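Supplementary Methods. Inverse-folding protocol.

Structures were first reduced to a discrete structure-token string of length 1109. This string, shown here, constituted the complete conditioning input.
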């Protein structure tokens, strides 16, 4: 739409007296003005109960944005119980909520990047905090003395300030994200942490940072740490052992002083670190400093612990068999009487085969056979082998039931998705897809082709860069190709890509654009752009502002012309685009207005309306007038102009005037005769006036033609003219496609009601841009078209003309796409070289970050792969669900309340500050779209995000879901464009008394949960089965849960469905008879122990005796 950029508004600026720093009270909260548009909340001491701070407040007739909370604003207000902070706030002063002893919950959706300090200090009943997704630094004593029990740090947090969580006695668990770099002094002093797993990337652990954490038993220090601060773990009296990576070369004084149960430090370095006199003072009498054998001679000279440095450590167990794992390599060969085993299912015998080994790499799960309560000496090893056939895993948490079929690792974020491509944007049933990878795939790479979570076919593609797949015969079907490597039961997903099998390009539309046609658009440059459009799977491309004049789009016999913006357009560039887009299967749609006539330039200025009549064979009588715009004794023809008058004017014709329609139709036919376009993208300017006057009457005034009257037509007449025009275009060229823009829904019902457009196309402005309205338009378009498979594309321009530059706000882009796609829509936003942010498509000033571009590709792969679950005649429904015991909000499907004048005040659609569901059902399948609005205010419930305040989501992991569903559930799987490249993950579930329980692996922006109904197969056939060692057998784990750190057996469905609840141990250690038939490329001693690097001696190899000399 051109309205926003065409109209020159003559605005009279009204001066108003404004006094800065005015104070006023709004809803029991006191504010002070900081400008004519913004306020700071300065006093909330009189408030009580649950406080939701608004993003905007009113004083008299003025509306202000709340941008800050003053220091001490709520200090010691014991009457408030909960606080919600909106995204408009960018500053929270120190001690803002200090000492609010009644405060229990905080939801911070602000744009604050740095906490100044003392914000929530001594809020002694504060148990729950959701932090801002933009937060980078937690300030000094920000949460000291609170009752927090658990905390999830956003990925944006880089620094935890001094004493930030000191004296948080109930804080037992903190989820650290990989963005964290620094923990300052005393940060967690005297907290209740029971275990500590710091993320890779952290560099600084400050002085006394975990002092006095008396429940802290285990610590995992990543390799990025180089220095441990003085007293970092002072008086952690429950700490028993710690593994120190080689990167740590400096132990400051008193680092582990007073850790009275600390008996073992395992140091993985090879050179002497720096220690202080009291680094290990007052530790256990049994303390040892254990090192790798290759470093023993060097490290035995370490000051203050030289007599404690060893390469072997004591080990004992209380039962004959026990599981074992260490975060370093271990050598068992010198432990006489002790046997170490890897384990696997024993060839369908309902038992566990134990294969003896002598050495294992770090993190390997093992079974140890030993005499109970006997002390053995095990040695640290420099390295050790990994065993692909070992079914033992090591638990990292209490719940290990999320993925049902395989142990999977997401590697998709390490690969650039641009580097995996298909040769077409869509395929006919039975066609062959050609896949190309930029790099040679690993030797063990495989691909599986999935429809939903059903594997259609798998192939070996190791060592290839190019391969093909003949798609099934089913029409209108989406697939995903998942590239992965397997190692035993473990898998790594390397890359994914969507495949659309559809005979009609508009059935599941993905609509892109091109907008530059200069001499620089060589075939090579065009190919780069078309390759990107192909990677986005764009089924159709809008050619924006390619035309010479709106009323004569193609200048006959011309090879070059000027467009409306006076840019050079080369016919050869247009042809390059069309030819190459056709080569990848995209349809090419030329853009033009339904009623536009381009005026002339006179002396580099637009001509006046007085000079318009008659040029290019057009009569001004074909236009329309607005009786509100009287001039010179009459009324001007409706005219719009470009900014500053630097480009030609556009005159607006009456689309119901048959002379005009005949004229434009002839021009359109010439386009088709000269360029191989596939159709016409018809534009309009939206609702202009309630009344239009056509069939104009005129007179001469001072020798000039002016209009005095005409036949009145209202808005509905004009909407009908649009429908007539579409039908005429289809009749003239029935084999060409049509799309028409319903600007702010103007004419939308008539447009889609013709059934002659490929899909609905809605340009969103102003009050349109609320999330609930996108869902309403999608449903209205389907109802008005008469097909529940009719789909909609939205033009919603991200950050449109907000005056900012630089890169797009990633969270804004992804939240917008997540919402539109989840609701069953699509979006025009991508060209081959830039992303839209204004209605003038050539404007390419803003750029996508690398992260955003990769994510966008995954989102479009997701839209393709799951098109049948998102927008294929799926009927809306509502589900009841809880997440970790809290109700999940269901999208309110009500229509807008007609008594609410301001669209912003509607309360339908999603709910702010919580996870929302939008659900559909088709056949026996319910698709539940989980949208993570947990830190999103209602003010951010728009797609365009003009203020760029959309926060990053707080990533939710391993959440317990309880779903109300009385119908028998056969399978549940999840998929998200935010992880595994959208590849599906099957989940374990239990169904009892109408309640379905499962664990949601992750939710960042958007995760789809698919519930398939039907007769449930035996549980063991649809879920992973986990076993824990109990006595001399492995027993099925209760609820598939395993305590952190324990090694356990995990079997995929293909094996697990045949297993009994109890699996006895079968050691393969009784001599040659046990390995005589072993055809593997392994070496065994004559006692049956597997050897990884055989030296001189007698061995069994492939069933034969072998002498190594």
């Amino acid at each position: 739409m051109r309205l926003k950029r065409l109209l020159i508004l003559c605005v009279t600026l009204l001066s108003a007296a404004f006094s800065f720093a005015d104070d006023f009270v709004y809803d029991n909260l006191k504010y002070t003005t900081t400008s004519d548009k913004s306020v700071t909340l300065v006093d909330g001491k009189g408030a009580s109960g649950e406080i939701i701070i608004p993003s905007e407040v009113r004083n008299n007739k003025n509306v202000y944005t709340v941008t800050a909370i003053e220091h001490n604003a709520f200090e010691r207000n014991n009457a408030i119980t909960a606080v919600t902070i909106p995204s408009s706030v960018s500053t929270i002063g120190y001690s803002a909520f200090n000492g609010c002893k009644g405060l229990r919950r905080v939801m911070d959706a602000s744009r604050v990047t740095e906490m100044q300090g003392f914000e929530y200090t001594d809020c002694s009943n504060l148990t729950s905090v959701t932090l801002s997704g933009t937060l980078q630094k937690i300030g000094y004593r920000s949460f000291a003395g609170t009752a927090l029990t658990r905390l999830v740090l956003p990925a944006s947090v880089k620094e935890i300030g001094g004493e930030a969580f000191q004296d948080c006695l109930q804080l037992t668990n903190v989820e650290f994200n990989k963005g964290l770099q620094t923990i300052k002094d005393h940060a967690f002093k005297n907290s209740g942490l029971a275990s500590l797993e710091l993320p890779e990337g952290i560099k600084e652990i400050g002085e006394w940072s975990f002092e006095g954490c008396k429940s802290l038993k285990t610590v995992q220090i990543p390799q990025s740490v180089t220095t441990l601060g003085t007293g970092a773990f002072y008086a952690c009296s429950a700490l028993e052992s710690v593994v120190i990576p080689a990167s740590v070369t400096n132990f400051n004084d008193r680092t582990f002083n007073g850790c009275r149960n600390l008996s073992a430090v395992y140091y993985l370095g090879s050179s002497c670190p720096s220690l202080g006199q009291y680094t290990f003072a007052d530790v256990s009498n049994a303390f040892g400093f254990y090192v790798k054998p290759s470093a023993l001679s060097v490290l035995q000279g370490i000051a203050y612990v030289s007599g404690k440095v060893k390469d072997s450590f004591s080990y004992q167990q209380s039962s004959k068999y026990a599981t074992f794992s260490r975060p370093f390599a271990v050598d068992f060969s010198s432990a006489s009487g002790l046997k170490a085993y890897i384990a696997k299912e024993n060839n369908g015998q309902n038992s566990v085969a134990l294969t003896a080994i002598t050495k294992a790499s770090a993190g390997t799960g093992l079974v140890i056979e030993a005499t109970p309560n006997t002390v053995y000496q095990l040695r640290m090893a420099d390295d050790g082998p990994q065993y692909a056939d070992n079914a033992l895993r090591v638990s990292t948490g209490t719940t290990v039931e999320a993925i049902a079929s395989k142990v999977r690792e997401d590697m998709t974020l390490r690969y650039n998705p641009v580097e995996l491509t298909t040769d077409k944007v869509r395929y006919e049933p039975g066609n062959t897809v050609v896949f190309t990878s930029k790099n040679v795939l690993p030797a063990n790479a495989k691909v599986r082709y999935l429809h939903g979570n059903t594997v259609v076919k798998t192939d070996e593609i190791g060592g290839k860069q190019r391969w093909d797949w003949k798609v099934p015969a089913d029409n209108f079907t989406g697939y995903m190709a998942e590239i992965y490597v397997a190692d035993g039961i473990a898998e790594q997903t390397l890359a994914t890509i969507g495949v659309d099998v559809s005979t009609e390009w508009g059935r599941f539309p993905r609509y892109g654009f091109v907008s530059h046609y200069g001499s620089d658009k060589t075939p090579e440059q065009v190919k780069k752009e078309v390759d990107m459009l192909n990677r986005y799977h764009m089924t159709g491309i809008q050619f924006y502002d390619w035309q010479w004049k709106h009323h004569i789009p193609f200048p006959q016999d011309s090879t070059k012309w000027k467009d409306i913006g006076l840019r050079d357009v080369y016919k050869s560039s247009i042809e390059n685009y069309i030819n190459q887009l056709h080569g990848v299967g995209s349809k090419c749609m030329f853009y033009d207005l339904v009623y536009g006539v381009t005026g002339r330039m006179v002396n580099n200025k637009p001509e006046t309306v007085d000079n318009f009549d008659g040029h290019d064979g057009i009569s001004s009588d074909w236009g329309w007038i607005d009786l509100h715009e009287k001039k010179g004794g009459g009324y001007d023809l409706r005219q719009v102009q470009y900014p500053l008058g630097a480009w030609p004017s556009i005159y607006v014709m009456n689309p119901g005037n048959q002379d005009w329609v005949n004229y434009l139709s002839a021009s359109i036919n010439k386009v088709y005769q000269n360029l191989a376009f596939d159709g016409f993208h018809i534009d309009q300017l939206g609702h202009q006036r309630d009344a239009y006057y056509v069939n104009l009457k005129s007179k001469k005034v001072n020798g000039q033609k002016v209009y005095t009257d005409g036949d009145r037509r209202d808005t509905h007449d004009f909407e009908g003219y649009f429908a007539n025009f579409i039908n005429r275009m289809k009749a003239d060229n029935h084999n060409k496609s049509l799309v028409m823009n319903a600007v702010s829904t103007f004419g939308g019902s008539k447009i889609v009601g013709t059934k002659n457009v490929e899909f609905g196309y809605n340009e969103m402005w102003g009050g349109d841009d609320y999330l609930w309205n996108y869902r309403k338009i999608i449903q209205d378009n389907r109802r008005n078209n008469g097909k529940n498979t009719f789909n909609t594309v939205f033009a919603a321009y991200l950050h449109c003309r907000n005056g900012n530059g630089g890169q797009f706000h990633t969270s804004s882009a992804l939240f917008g796409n997540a919402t539109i796609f989840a609701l069953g829509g699509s979006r025009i936003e991508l060209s081959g070289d830039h992303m839209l942010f204004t209605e003038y498509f050539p404007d390419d000033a803003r750029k996508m970050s690398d992260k955003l571009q990769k994510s966008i590709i995954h989102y479009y792969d997701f839209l393709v792969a799951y098109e049948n679950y998102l927008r294929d005649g799926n009927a809306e429904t509502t589900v009841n669900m809880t997440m970790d015991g809290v109700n999940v909000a269901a999208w309110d499907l009500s229509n807008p309340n007609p008594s609410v004048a301001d669209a912003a005040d509607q309360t339908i659609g999603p709910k702010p500050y919580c996870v929302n569901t939008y659900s559909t059902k088709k056949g026996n399948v319910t698709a539940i779209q989980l949208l993570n609005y947990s830190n999103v205010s209602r003010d951010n419930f728009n797609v365009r995000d003009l203020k760029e305040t959309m926060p990053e989501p707080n990533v939710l992991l391993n959440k317990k879901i309880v779903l109300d569903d009385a119908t028998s559930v056969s399978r549940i799987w999840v998929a998200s464009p935010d992880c595994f490249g959208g590849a599906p993950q099957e989940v374990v579930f239990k169904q009892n008394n109408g309640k379905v329980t499962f664990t949601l692996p992750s939710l960042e922006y958007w995760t789809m949960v698919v519930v398939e109904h039907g007769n449930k197969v035996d549980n063991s056939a649809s879920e992973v089965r986990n076993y824990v060692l109990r006595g001399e057998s492995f027993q099925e784990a209760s609820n598939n849960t395993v305590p952190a750190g324990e090694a356990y057996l995990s079997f995929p469905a293909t094996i697990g469905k045949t297993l009994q609840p109890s699996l006895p141990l079968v050691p393969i250690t009784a001599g040659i008879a046990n390995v005589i038939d072993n055809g593997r490329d392994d070496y065994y001693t004559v006692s049956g122990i597997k050897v990884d690097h055989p030296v001189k001696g007698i061995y069994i190899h492939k069933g034969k005796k072998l002498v190594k000399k």
